[in-house]
Specification:
Layout: H1 3-25, H2 36-39, E1 44-48, H3 50-55, H4 57-66, E2 69-72, H5 78-81, H6 91-102, E3 106-113, H7 120-123, H8 129-146, E4 151-158, H9 171-176, H10 180-191, E5 196-201, H11 208-223, E6 230-233, E7 236-238, H12 243-256, E8 259-268, H13 280-298, E9 306-311, H14 342-348
Parallel strand pairs: 1-2, 1-9, 2-3, 3-4, 4-5, 5-6, 6-8, 7-8, 8-9
Bound molecules: (3S,4R)-3-hydroxy-2-oxopiperidin-4-yl beta-D-xylopyranoside (XIL).
Residues 73-74, 158, 234, 264, 320 line the site of (3S,4R)-3-hydroxy-2-oxopiperidin-4-yl beta-D-xylopyranoside.
């Protein structure tokens, strides 16, 4: 071997060893184009919390590598943005939006009207129906206008139905009657006519009664030309998910022509009360199979109706489902150290 050839061979060996060392030190490190967002034929999102976004490099790296859509896990809710009648607090949400804009991530807004997230001042508000209507309108329109042009879609109303298909007896229903629901959409549309507007709920995907009631209500809105563009299935689910029911509900939404967002997906491995715990390996395998089924079924939705699938967090430690009892749920695609789990691989290769 000639002298320059020897040098270049040695250099190549040194560089290769170095690259291997980097990869071994940080196994999360993968080629740039292997992220889920490049693999699946629809947007893939994650619910994002502001603290780890600012403080955790691995969290940020996975977000940028894998996802092309985000939902603010809490920062755009009523309590966070509008903590008292006269104060709007934009700082966390704005930081999130700035990050998303910089990294070209779609931002799905969540949620303009969610009865479980009314601040104390709203619950204590005194006024006639005109004053209540103004409160509702002002909140929706101030928030949507603030993020106009950056947040391209909104969960306008979240969780308005009971499991038996009736409307929840929320403060909004009590003060304004059932038509407040449609007006939430009208107000959001007035503030940003380009934004896609969603109704979001849980459990309807395997509860015939709730699904039927929501579809009937959506059909009414469509007939009245109320600006509604899609439906979100939260899908906080488990190893016991009834897949045939999910399939049926997805097909029912497809028939409406609306967009379908699997908006808060996570699959808990927690055993049912009284049932024995699964081994870690068994639960990880079963979880991967469920994730694969969900992603595969979603690919049967016509492409024009696929708004995307959003995971409700990145690593297991970030999951809100662990709140009471750390570790028992492990519902996400990445583990506590942000390493991809079997579920990640299953999603990556779903539909192949
Ligand atoms: C949850 C967040 O993940 C938690 O951090 C917060 O404490 C409560 O709300 N359905 C929804 C989401 O629509 O907004 C909820 O998010 C989870 C259930």
């Amino acid at each position: 071997m000639k002298y320059p050839a020897l040098i270049s061979t040695l250099l190549w060996i040194i560089l290769s060893l170095d690259a291997m060392a980097i990869t071994n030190k940080n196994p999360v490190c993968m080629a740039a184009d292997t992220g889920l967002k490049y693999r699946l034929g629809f947007p893939v999102g994650a619910a994002i919390k502001i603290r780890p976004l600012l403080n955790n490099n691995r969290y940020r790296a996975i977000l940028i590598r894998e996802f092309n859509s985000i939902t603010a896990e809490n920062a755009m809710k009523f309590k966070a943005l509008h903590p008292s009648a006269t104060i709007f607090n934009w700082s966390d949400a704005d930081q999130l939006v700035d990050f998303a804009v910089k990294h070209q991530l779609r931002i799905h807004g969540h949620a303009l009207n969610w009865p479980k997230n009314n601040p104390k001042w709203v619950m204590e508000f005194q006024g006639d129906s005109v004053a209540w209507e103004q409160l509702l309108q002002k909140h929706i329109q101030t928030v949507v206008s603030h993020f106009k042009g950056k947040v391209s879609s909104w969960d306008v109303v979240n969780e308005a139905f009971n499991d038996n298909g009736t409307l929840r007896k929320t403060i909004w229903l009590q003060k304004l009657g059932p038509d407040y629901l449609a007006r939430c959409f009208v107000y959001a549309h007035e503030a940003d006519p380009a934004a896609l507007l969603f109704y979001n709920d849980y459990g309807q995907e395997y509860n015939g009664k709730k699904m039927k009631a929501i579809l009937k209500w959506l059909g009414g809105l469509q007939r009245e030309h109320i600006p509604i563009h899609g439906l979100g299935f939260q899908l906080h689910t488990s190893l016991r998910i009834p897949i045939p029911e999910l399939q049926k509900s997805i097909q029912a939404v497809v028939r409406t022509g609306l967009l379908l967002h699997l908006s808060e997906l996570d699959v808990s491995v927690r055993s049912k009360k009284g049932e024995p715990l699964l081994t870690a390996a068994a639960s990880a395998t079963q979880q991967a199979a469920i994730y694969r089924q969900i992603f595969t079924i979603y690919q049967t939705v016509p492409a024009r109706q696929r708004f995307g699938i959003t995971l409700w967090g990145i690593g297991d430690q970030d999951s809100y489902r662990n709140a009471k009892d750390a570790d028992a749920d492990a519902p996400l695609l990445f583990d506590h150290n942000y390493q991809p789990k079997p579920a990640y691989k299953a999603v990556q290769t779903s539909g192949q």
